Amino acid sequence: MFDHMPESVEIVEVGPRDGLQNEQTCLSPSERAQFIRKLTDTGLTHIEAGSFVNPKRVPQLANSNEVFSQLDKSHTHVVYSALVPNEKGLQAAIESGCKTIAIFTGASETFCKKNINASIKESFDRFTPVITEAKVQNISVRGYLSCIAGCPFEGEVSPHKVIDLTWQLLEAGCYQVSLGDTIGTASPKQIQSILIALTEPIRQGKIAVHFHDTYGQAITNIFAALQLGVQVIDSSVAGLGGCPFAAARLQSLASQNDNQNNVCQNNNSKKSSGQNKVSLSPGNVATEDVLYLLEGLGIHTGVNRDHVIDVGHWVCQKLQRPNQAKSVI
């Protein structure tokens, strides 16, 4: 069972970008930079620090250039990356001194349309010149592939499609592809059916996993990925963020159950239930929980879990929200 597990794993901390982008409370650029500096002090070596997207669409990540200007670039052992949607975003990243960017697509046509207003092919057409120019500028490019197991609109996604798109991203010039179970519905069997076809890039550290905990399966799926040798795991301190489409799906299902059970007759109960669904819907797997798993397996990360726990409590106080990490209770 443990024969193919890696001796060490790199954690890609996505809290300052993927985590904050769906939070109701917006942190200032100075607070976000402070957040990132605190995470840097935990021993993390790759932190997703921002996103150069339209601030009207994602106000939580507005002025990412100011965040980057407040980070100590002398930390040569730490990667501060940013999501870049197009050539305009790339130019902003270049001007901010960002040396690693991420581009994004999905394995579901409908999800891509609703999330980035493009088909899968159009998303490739959009980021291909970004990758080309990034290479000229000596900027590394990481790829995100969402909905690798299920889509909130189309249902189950074909593993063959995921595998094919992963290879396309690698061939397009991504040094690594992060496979995302965006709505958190994947099972270990589904995850391994994809990863077993990617043995060589996994061995080369070119495949990362990015699992959401919507159905409480993230840690189980990470364990399944480790069994096949995956060496890179995305996670978010305190379980910040997640997919709004997944939260909406959970609320819809819960609402249907409420109606079937005639619970909606009680307005006070319904109001309380709705509040919990909005604020407590599980999203990104918590970095604290991933570290707890890895430490228990004897896998080295170089990250101080106690310090990560402290940062998680700090940012949750700033955001006025509960800490979603299960291993800090």
Automatic annotation (TrEMBL):
A Gene Ontology BP annotation from the UniProt entry: ketone body biosynthetic process
Supply the InterPro entries for this chain.
Answer: Aldolase_TIM, HMGL, PYR_CT
Q: Which PROSITE patterns match?
A: PYR_CT (PS50991)
Q: What segments bear the compositional bias annotation Low complexity?
A: 259-279
Q: Where is this region: Disordered?
A: 259-281
Query: Which one Pfam family would you cite for this protein?
Result: HMGL-like
**Which domain of life does this protein belong to?**
Bacteria
UniProt keyword terms in alphabetical order: Lyase, Metal-binding
Is Lyase included in the keywords of this UniProt record?
yes
Gene Ontology MF term list: hydroxymethylglutaryl-CoA lyase activity; metal ion binding
Positions of the Pyruvate carboxyltransferase domain: 9-281
Tell me the protein family, please.
Belongs to the HMG-CoA lyase family.
The name on file for this protein is Hydroxymethylglutaryl-CoA lyase
Source organism: Marinibactrum halimedae
The beginning of the lineage is: Bacteria, Pseudomonadati, Pseudomonadota, Gammaproteobacteria, Cellvibrionales
